[in-house]
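Table S7 (text form). Paired inputs.
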Amino acid sequence: MSFGVNLDSSMDSMEETRFKKKHSDLIQKLAKKLHFTYTELECIFIIYYKLQKDNADKNLNGISKNQLRDVLHSGLDMTDDGLMDRIFSVFERGPSTCVSMETWATALSLWLKGTLEEKIDYCFSVYDLLGDGLIGRETMFYFLRTSLISQSSEDDAEESVKDMIEVITKKMDVDRDGKISYNDYKTTVLNQPMMLEALGQCLPTREAVHTFITTFTPKIGKM
């Protein structure tokens, strides 16, 4: 699997030891709240470190959002460019152009091993375009049109979107007020998990999750 950097490149043993020692407190803290073991987090941090070393902009204090975008595309099969900025905004609020090590680990924990309820919270946050806790028809139109227009002509996409909005609203607007609230969304997805990404892909495919995890799990102790 390609991450846009040679992750199999060797690290000097002293460099690796210093790196692990430097970040041991953060790794220990994250191991208590994320879905990774301490050793898995060491591997995930080393992947981050190699990405950071490969960054052309040496002034960035972390990996760039473009690098994360490349990882999502090539490593996690998340290719809906229309959702990328929303995905980034859930984890990194503010104008920062880089992704911190803690954000990297937190995002991977959710994407690779998150519970259904964690994914419900995350996906709703991605889709909550206006930040008011409601998903209206305009928001649905925005996300669905962006996803579909890359697959068909603009006119065909708009007609398909209108039909999809009717279907999604019928399934998810539990209280029939014309908008999808968080409770509407959660209730629907808990009963029909296939509706989790109804407005566009913001999670990796199951196959990509398995492949990504196996890129570092067998290498524990060998990176």
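Next pair, protein 2 of 2.
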Amino acid sequence: MNSLNSTLSLNTTFVRPPFFVINGFYYVPHAKYYYVFLFFVFAVSVLGNSFVMFIIYTERSFHTPKYMAIINLAVADLGESTALIPNLIAMFPFGTQYISFDACLANMFFVFFFSSLQTLTLTILAYDRLVAICLPLRYHAIITMPAMTVILTVVWACDSFVLILMVSLITRLSFCKSIVVKSYFCDHAPVFFLACNDNLVNRIMANVNIVLLLYVPFILTALSYVFIAGALCKIASWEGRFKAIKTCSSHLILVVICYCPIIGIYIASMAGALHPNARIINTSLSFAIPPMMNPIIYVLNTEEVKEFSKRLFSRKKITATEINR
């Protein structure tokens, strides 16, 4: 044992631990209430996104490029919730904070993959709204099913490539110091900071990931709305402006819900030392809340979805009444 410790201290042995310990919520007071809240969030996310996918699949009028992007958003939301929340609920309330090395890398990949897919899909939907408002006469010529298929395929491929590269670079690290990950899942930075060999490549890759999959989508989305605002100013009537704004309202709310928590965390971090518990709670909410809210907002704010939902529940009500008779 002494010889092993001396070997590790000299960094002459490559160490891959059999497992990591996730201690994210261990020091958060009254965390059990937060787990109940997360379970509720997960249930609503699964039901809501499953409902959105169901209505888009069953209603032929929704088989359009825009709704193809929306169903992609629902898949991203469902994937993100499933990759993150069940593991959280299984780990901390039941005291199973251990996660194997391979499972940790899988968890890291899927959480980041689906959260990045969410921001990229919001950018695609921003482009859809940009064309609809700025080039309405050419909308159906530009936003076609083949074009949307190509866009979504490229997004999935780029997202997969960046994150496979990011996660695979973890395997070059030696973990001879600690195996305690100071986060609520196998977060990238808290894992590679544990390494006792050079992690410069991992730090560079983390920055590349943030720039490509967070900053660039946000900037493109913001620029889309700058051009949309310019187009709205050219509309003479307030009625026309309101009608155009209404077509963007659902998407704009989703963008605010997605990016505001992340921006808030960065601002709080720059303003001063953010308490670890506050950082963990805020970050977990920024991952958990958007997948729950996205389907609710689309069902409540999109006229076509509301009409279909009313017809669907009306048919079920009539069928139930006839059966009771």
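The beta strands are 19-22, 98-100, 180-181.
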